[in-house]
Amino acid sequence: MLKVLLIITSYSHDIATAFLTVSGILMVILYLKREELMGLGSQEAFVEVYRRVKLIAEASLLWILLAGVPRTVFYKKMEWSYIAGDTQIVAIGIKHVVMFLLVGALSYYWIRLSKYIKGKER
Hints:
By secondary structure, the protein is an all-alpha fold.
């Protein structure tokens, strides 16, 4: 039963990463199209979409961090590929650097969009 929970946690970590990436892309789109979308006359709808995307992004980030702990602890036992050997450590490192940079870049737009909305709500 523990193995099943660990596998589910590991897969859900990957799913949360995908959700965070998509949420970030939506933040970029919302930010770049903000004037056009706000010009359509529904500031409330725009803010509501932002809040929902933000909630998904925050929940995804939290789950990535929480699910990453058991994944790290049990990686060698549950996911280690003996065929790939130590080269997978380099691959995992590169993957995490790329994801960190992606989240950082997308967070830039998240912060800008948050400031924009706070300015509109005054």
